[in-house]
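Postdoc handover notes: sequence design on the structure in folder B. Input tokens:
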């Protein structure tokens, strides 16, 4: 199955998007990997070589996304759009989600599956840390969480072919090879998710051939302690 899959990574120059590109490329056999980004020169030559194609465009533009879906013949899309570490008010996640759903509703793309990277505390989930700290974090991140909540809502009409993964605070260089899932209102085991672990979870979801796919679900994940 993997070698007939074509993965379009939207936000491929971002930290999680790029990790997904690298991990898909490391599979043997590996799927076709198409990187969608604003500026291809942000990718190193080695990373460019990992991609079957690189498609430049603006993720807010349904026209740009439709071109990417058509050119890549994508079977699966990963939406990994963000704004670096900014916590300012933004609608980039919502706007790109809405634009993507507009395209995915077209008859030509009705079989395409999407995995949306969202955040703990978005949608029906809560950040539960204890001693009221979860509420403080949620307030601090309120603009991001609203953007992710509205992004998730954009996918409601195609939820049967959408997986939403809500990660705790993303970090790097602390991979343990394992993520754990938790309930929407449950205290998470840890407060951090390593991007390499998240990418591995995503690769497994998209390439796994058994019935464990989280399609149609929103899954809350976090890392484990070393
Ligand atoms: N940070 C956290 O703790 C945390 C926790 C949970 C979930 N998340 C979510 O996880 C996702 C991935 O996070 P990350 O930190 O790995 O992402 P990131 O490094 O901030 O990357 C974001 C990507 O989005 C791209 N992008 C932004 N606007 C775009 C546009 N108009 N058109 C095309 N591409 C655009 C960026 O492109 P450029 O390279 O051109 O800027 C970049 O490739 C985000 O949705 C984030 O909100 C983050």
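Designed sequence:
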């Amino acid at each position: 199955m993997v070698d007939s899959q074509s993965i379009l990574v939207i936000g491929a120059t971002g930290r999680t998007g790029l990790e997904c590109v690298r991990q898909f490329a490391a599979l043997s056999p590996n799927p076709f990997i198409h990187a969608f980004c604003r500026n291809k020169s942000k990718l190193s030559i080695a990373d460019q070589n990992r991609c079957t194609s690189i498609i430049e465009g603006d993720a807010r533009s349904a026209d740009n996304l439709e071109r990417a879906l058509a050119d890549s013949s994508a079977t699966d899309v990963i939406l990994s759009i963000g704004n670096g570490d900014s916590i300012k008010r933004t609608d980039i996640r919502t706007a790109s989600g809405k634009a993507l759903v507009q395209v995915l509703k077209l008859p030509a793309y009705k079989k395409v599956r999407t995995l949306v990277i969202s955040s703990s505390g978005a949608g029906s989930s809560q950040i539960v840390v204890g001693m009221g700290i979860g509420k403080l974090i949620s307030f601090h991140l309120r603009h991001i969480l609203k953007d992710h909540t509205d992004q998730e809502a954009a996918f409601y009409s195609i939820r049967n072919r959408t997986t939403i993964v809500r990660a705790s605070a993303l970090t790097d260089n602390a991979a343990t090879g394992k993520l754990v899932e938790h309930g929407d209102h449950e205290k998470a085991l840890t407060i951090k998710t390593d991007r390499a672990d998240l990418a591995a979870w995503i690769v497994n979801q998209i390439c796994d051939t058994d019935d464990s796919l989280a399609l149609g679900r929103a899954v809350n994940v976090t890392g484990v302690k070393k």
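Context for whoever picks this up: Residues 11, 13-17, 37-39, 42, 58-60, 80-84, 92-93, 117, 119, 144, 167, 169-170, 195 surround NAP (CB under 6 Å). Don't rerun without checking with the PI first.
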